[in-house]
Amino acid sequence: MSERSRYVPGVPCWVDTQQPDPQAVLPFYSGLFGWEFENAMPEGSGGEYHMARIRGGDVAAVGSMPEGMPPNPMWNTYVAVASADDAVEKVRAAGGAVFQGPFDVMDAGRMAVVADPEGAVFCVWEAKENIGANVVNENGALNFNGLATRDAAAAEPFYGAVFGWKLLSIPAGKFWMLPGYGDHLEESAPGLREQMKEMGAPDGFIDVVAAVNPIAAGGGEAPAHWTVTFGADDIDATAKQVTALGGTVVVEPHDEPWTKTATLRDPAGAVFLAAQFVAENSELTA
Questions:
Q1: Are residues 151 and 107 in the same domain?
Q2: Do residues 234 and 170 make contact, with C-beta atoms less than 8 angstroms apart?
Q3: CA 224 from chain center: how many Å?
Q4: Is residue 196 part of a domain?
Q5: DSSP state of 135
Q6: Degrees, nearest 5: CA angle 144-150-156
Q7: Looking at the domain assignment, is residue 208 inside a domain?
Q8: pTM over 0.85
Q9: CA angle at residue 64 from 132 to 33, to 5 degrees?
Q10: Do 169 and 39 share a structural domain?
Q11: Distance (Å, rounded) from C-alpha 52 to C-alpha 36?
């Protein structure tokens, strides 16, 4: 299921990175993932928003920093919603914060920038002409999003109120699930439910939309945040390429349930993850 034509509300659908100098990091991501770029901003707009594509399909974007924001590069997670305005009201009612209220992004869609009560920032996306990522779950494409938090149980009422998510706790870890999402996936790819069962996926896993990444007690003052993971065919080769292209391997490739994962940093400082699916790691526990 590497190509998408739509997202149901409550599913992460897009990622982008804000950079002080977008042009400076384009060669890094092009060399690492094979992305081809096109600046989607109108001429004379004063900003940049480079759409990254694989086989002509949108996978992510590299954009400039909004005026007035601190120059700290980061990757951002967008979650699909039916109405950005309604989602913002739900965020407020559930105790979250609104950093930028709903606004139109030309004809592409309508969005807002918000945060959960613990301070993890994310965006909501009401699609119009642009659904988000067209290519996912392959080398160089969005593979997973995760909430790094100190208290997943405390976060559940918020994300439940905003998106309808519930916590799924299994030996492999904790995950956010959207009840009924598996029905949508099965409709798009008949037989997927049975395939996942044969692979040993636990009950409810087909409804998973995001991961929960606990911030360990030794995590210091690291704030709650959303993480972005890209797929990798060979994570060891990907990590070596990061260094060769001027980036940094923050955490070396290591085995996790179902994957081998590395934490990486681009030359400007934006952190992201890359993961290789490893079926033999299915028995590992978090």
A1: no
A2: no
A3: 15
A4: yes
A5: B
A6: 70
A7: yes
A8: yes
A9: 55
A10: no
A11: 5
